[in-house]
Design goal:
GO molecular function, one term: zinc ion binding
Cofactor: Zn(2+)
Structural class: alpha+beta
CATH class of the largest domain: Mainly Alpha
CATH architecture of the largest domain: Orthogonal Bundle
Protein name: Formamidopyrimidine-DNA glycosylase
Number of strands: 10
Organism: Pseudidiomarina homiensis
CATH topology of the largest domain: Helicase, Ruva Protein, domain 3
Largest sheet: 4 strands, antiparallel
Number of domains: 2
Distance between the termini: 29 Å
Strand order of the largest sheet: 1-6-7-5
Subunit structure: Monomer.
Strand content: 15-25%
Helix content: 10-25%
Length: about 270
């Protein structure tokens, strides 16, 4: 599933090709995504795209006729290709531009979405209005996380993965951040000290920033019909390495399930 860095790289990849352009038409080939694509999406014809924004794992296209909300779901991909380029299986939606290019949404599993809003969805849309702060902004601090965690018995891992607490710390990045911070993933969030949050928060920011920077090397894929935009290789210390040696102490990494998600940690390095 695409996580925040993949979605941010998707934004970086498509924004230069969309911002300032005029929409010629919206083409819906199959409206059956996670929620049906609204019929009224065709009314964006003639609109100018002013900005491509990311909020959590949603992409928001600002236009002078309202807002389009895109989510990649589990398997969605976005590309900018010529409008007349060959349509392949699972190409469910095109946003065709007057310059002959189009934003094409391909989603084999159909868990993504294309929605619309008359007002900025971050304010009153039910999918976005209750989200926590962005992890790479100044509002996400150790003091904030410590304050939110008081009295919480849930594990620190599920706590930092809760989008109502902070958005975008997906499973990969929660595993990696807790390893680097030396915090056991099962430790109760309310038992983590301010000092440890002061160590954890910069690490979360560092790991997400590094992932986005690594993904920046794939930006050309967004205009290549045979590319795989938004997905990129990363250096991982623990995620996907259960049963292998810890890269720091050489102990065997342990893999468990927390919140129904794979959790890998070092019993020596993380307390």
């Amino acid at each position: 599933m695409p996580e925040l860095p993949e979605v941010e790289v998707s934004r970086m990849g498509i924004a230069p090709h969309l911002e300032g352009q005029q929409i010629a038409q919206a083409v819906v080939r199959d409206k059956r995504l996670r929620w049906p694509i609204p019929d009224a999406v065709v009314n964006f014809a003639g609109a100018f795209i002013k900005q491509v924004e990311r909020r959590a794992k949603y992409l928001i296209l600002h236009t002078d006729k309202g807002y389009l909300i895109l989510h990649l779901g589990m398997s969605g991909k976005l590309r900018v290709v010529p409008s007349e380029s060959l349509v392949v299986k699972h190409d469910h939606f095109d946003l065709q531009l007057t310059n002959g290019q189009c934003l094409r949404f391909n989603d084999p599993r159909r868990f993504g979405c294309v929605l619309m809003s008359a007002t900025h969805p971050g304010v009153d849309h039910p999918l976005l209005r209750d989200l926590g702060p962005e992890p790479l902004t100044e509002s996400f601090t150790a003091d904030y996380l410590h304050r939110q965690s008081r009295g919480k018995q849930q594990s620190i891992k599920t706590f930092i993965m809760d989008n109502h607490v902070v958005v975008g710390v997906g499973n990969i990045y929660a595993n990696e951040s807790l390893f680097k911070a030396g915090i056991h993933p099962k430790r109760a969030a309310g038992k983590v000290s301010l000092a440890r949050y002061q160590k954890l928060v910069p690490i979360i920011k560092e790991i997400l920033t590094a992932a986005i920077a690594q993904g920046g090397t794939t930006l050309q894929d967004f205009t290549q019909a045979d590319g795989s935009p938004g997905y990129f290789k990363q250096h991982l210390n623990v995620y996907g390495r259960g049963g292998k040696q810890c890269m720091v102490c050489k102990s065997l990494l342990k893999e468990i399930r927390l919140g129904q998600r794979s959790t890998v940690y070092c019993t020596t390095c993380q307390r």
